[in-house]
Each structure stands twice: as C-alpha cells, then as structure tokens.
C-alpha cells in the first residue's frame, strides 16, 4: 500500500483493489454487476457492506444477488485517515484514471454510481454535469494535471457529459425515505474540477462507450452523487441503497427483470413453470436460454436462484 499525504480540500478518489474478486460473468451482452465507488468519508465507509475485500468489510459482502434482484453489487474505496488515504485510487489523476479502467475491465458494470464527499451539510447532491476539462485543479503528485488534459480525446475540450442515472427518480426516492438529507439534482453547475469531477467524468464517459445494446459489456446508466460531509455513515448507506434500488429499476426496465422468463414484467407462475425446465445442480452450467434465472450470476440455475424467484413472486398483474 502506498500512503501519501494530501492537503486542503479534496474531492473524490475512487479505489481499486488488486483483486476485485468479481464474478465478471458476461451474459446476453451484459453482466449483472453494479459498480459503486467511494472516496473521502463518509462515502468510503458507507459502501463497506458492498466490498468483497475482507479487510475493508470484515462483516462480509452483502452484494451477491442483492435483495434477490439478480444483481451483484461491488464497491471500491480507499481507506482514509483524513487527509491521508491509501488504496489503489490515489488523489492523483494518473493513478485514478489507470485504476478506473483496470477495475471496470474486471467488473464490466451494467450500471455504476460514483460517490464522493461534498459540502459541509447533510446533502445528497446528484450531479448532472461533468466536463471534459482542459484545466483541472492541481493534484499533489507530479504531473499535477491529468495526462492527457482534457482526458477524453473523443470529444472537444469542455464538452459536458450528463448523468445517465434516473436523477429525478433517485432524488424523489431519497426524499421519500425521510433520511434527514437535503436532496437535489445539480443541473446548473459542475462537479468542482478536482478528483470528484474527474472520476464522475470517467463514470459517464465509460457508460457512453458501453451504451450500445450490441456491446458485450453494455452499461445502461451511470453518474455521480456528492455526499455531504456531515452525513452519518448509516444514513449514507441507507441513501446509497435507496439510490441503488432506483438504478436497478431503470436497468430492469431496459434489460428485463431477472427471473422474468416471458418478459411480461412480472414474476408469476408462468415464470416458475419455466424455471422447472431450466433447473440445474449447483455449479452445473445453465442451459442456453435459461440465463434469465441465474440470479446470483454464478453460472447455474439452482435452488438458490429458485429461492430468489420465489421471494420475488409477484403474481400476474
Ligand atoms: Ca498527478
Ligand atoms: Ca413473467
Ligand atoms: Ca445461479
């Protein structure tokens, strides 16, 4: 682990670990992997339950087939003894960018949310704009600007990329959760021009690259949320989960719900009947055409997947 000192106010770094431990299974042109990144507290601490790293999450990973929805949730974040952080995402444009591309190549996320520490209030600020800036706030390790700057040579400098998260739906859901947060979408401003906006830009940039339904690692939606410094960790975790549920709803609406074999929007007896012909032993390869039943993305359609289907039973509309 490289430890280094940073100073002053600093936003976002995300983190990468040497071994992410992800299933990285591609299916039907996309995974069911969701990538979350955190940075300064509370955004690193609030994402611990979704880390597969035993040192960062001694309580154990809860991301597998989270809430029976058919998505594996993976988080990556640094350890920060403010202002010092350690981990693969350093407060450095060069390392952050290199780690971003390495981790996404492993996770192949179908959706992503980058989080970073925001202002000094209990805010949940959903960022709409992130720019391909030619000039950024200097980081602390030479070279102090991104290399290259602007980072994205596929579009002109100062091009804005918008969040593809369902920003209004996330806002409303977090408000409705009554977590004591000030929730808003930032439509008029940018992400601050430092590491927060840099990783935010990477998120929406990555999503645009993998936007096509023909992409073997399709990414449906991505964007950034700034979390206020005084948001308690537990509140941050709760709000992240609320935001995540809305993201999963959006991905379901685009790709179809896991377990919905007849693609009619429900998990009813018709789907259960279909499962019977698809069931495998644990670890036995899922049959072609039965991938929709592999809730935990481990390559089979066994009784664990059946349990998720049963728990998600909706009946016919
Ligand atoms: Ca640097
Ligand atoms: Ca159905
Ligand atoms: Ca399975």
What does this structure look like?
There is one protein chain. With 317 residues, the chain is α/β, with parallel strands linked by helices. The protein folds into 2 domains: 3-255, Aminopeptidase (3-Layer(aba) Sandwich), CATH 3.40.630.20; 269-311, no CATH class. The protein contains 6 helices and 11 strands. The protein has helices spanning 93-107, 167-176, 195-209, 233-255, 269-276, 303-311; strands at residues 3-4, 33-37, 72-76, 79-81, 84-86, 111-117, 123-127, 129-131, 160-162, 182-186, 221-227. The strands form 3 sheets. A 6-stranded mixed β-sheet has the order 3-2-6-11-7-10, sandwiched between helices. It has a 3-stranded antiparallel β-sheet with strand order 1-5-4, with no helix packed on it. Strands 8-9 form a two-stranded antiparallel sheet. A hairpin with a 2-residue loop joins strand 4 and strand 5 (84-86). Helix 1 (93-107) packs parallel to helix 3 (195-209). The chain starts with a strand and ends in a 6-residue tail after the last helix. The model is unreliable at 1-27 (pLDDT under 50). It binds calcium ion (3 copies).
CATH topology of the largest domain: Aminopeptidase
List SSEs in N-to-C order: EEEEEHEEEEHEHEHHH
Using only CA atoms, what is the Rg? Answer: 19 Å
Shape: globular
The side-by-side strand order for the widest beta sheet comes to: 3-2-6-11-7-10
What hetero molecules are in the model?
A: calcium ion
The first-to-last residue Cα distance is 53 Å
Residue-averaged pLDDT: 89
Largest sheet: 6 strands, mixed
Approximate strand percentage? 15-25%
Question: Which residues form runs of ≥5 with pLDDT under 50?
Answer: 1-27
Class derived from helix and strand content = alpha/beta
CATH class of the largest domain: Alpha Beta
What is the H level of CATH, i.e. the homologous superfamily of the largest domain?
Peptidase C15, pyroglutamyl peptidase I-like
Q: What is the share of helical residues?
A: 25-40%
How many structurally independent domains?
A: 2
């Amino acid at each position: 682990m490289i430890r280094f000192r940073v100073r002053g106010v600093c936003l976002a770094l995300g983190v990468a670990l040497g071994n992410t431990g992800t299933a990285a299974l591609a299916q039907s042109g996309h995974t069911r992997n969701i990538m979350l990144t955190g940075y300064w507290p509370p955004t690193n601490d609030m994402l611990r339950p979704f880390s597969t790293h035993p040192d960062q999450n001694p309580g154990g990973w809860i991301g597998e087939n989270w809430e029976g929805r058919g998505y594996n949730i993976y988080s990556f974040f640094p350890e920060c003894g403010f202002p010092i952080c350690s981990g693969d995402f350093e407060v450095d444009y060069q390392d952050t960018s290199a780690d971003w591309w390495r981790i996404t190549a492993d996770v192949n996320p179908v959706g992503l949310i980058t989080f970073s520490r925001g202002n000094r209030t209990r805010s949940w600020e959903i960022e709409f704009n992130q720019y391909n800036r030619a000039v950024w706030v200097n980081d602390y390790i030479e070279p102090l600007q991104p290399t290259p700057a602007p980072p994205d040579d596929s579009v002109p400098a100062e091009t804005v990329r918008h969040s593809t998260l369902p920003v209004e739906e996330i806002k409303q859901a977090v408000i409705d959760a009554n977590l004591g947060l000030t929730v808003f979408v930032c439509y008029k401003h940018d992400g601050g021009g430092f590491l927060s906006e840099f990783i935010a830009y990477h998120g929406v940039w990555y999503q645009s690259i993998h936007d096509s339904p023909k992409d073997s690692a399709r990414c449906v939606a991505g964007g950034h949320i700034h979390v206020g410094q005084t948001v308690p960790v537990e509140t941050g975790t709760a709000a992240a989960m609320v935001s995540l549920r809305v993201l999963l709803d959006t991905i379901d609406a685009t790709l179809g719900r896991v377990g919905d074999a007849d693609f009619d929007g429900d998990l009813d007896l018709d789907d259960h009947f279909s499962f019977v012909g698809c069931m495998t032993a644990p670890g036995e390869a899922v049959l072609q055409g039965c991938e929709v039943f592999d809730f935990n993305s481990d390559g089979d359609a066994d009784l664990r997947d059946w349990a998720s289907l049963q728990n998600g039973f909706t009946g016919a509309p």
